[in-house]
Amino acid sequence: MLRDAAPAVAALFLSEAVVAWLDLDVARHGWHVAVALLPLLAGVWLAWVQVRALRRCDEYQRVVHLEALSVGFAVAMLVAMAGGLLSAVMSGPTPCTCS
Fold this sequence. Notes:
This protein has helices spanning about 1-20, 30-35, 40-55, 60-90. It is mainly alpha-helical. It has 2 domains: about 1-55; about 60-90. The longest helix is centred in the last third of the chain and has 32 residues, at about 60-90. The N and C termini lie far apart (about 60 Å).
């Protein structure tokens, strides 16, 4: 699996570095959207590596693998929720536009 995943991880790091280095402004240029979404290709590649690895597993390894993926997904969602909530709190109060 490492042989399959290493190029995908390298592509992910490289595409993330390109996106960070270019300092994209999506409001000005439409092609910036395509460049900003470039790391998604590496993410799809990594998902494909996971599916291939899962298909190669025997029954017990498959159960363990799927349980680990489900726990990891739950933890990632909780961290994403916490980040979103903290981001909303850190941005400060929004002015009331009630009339």
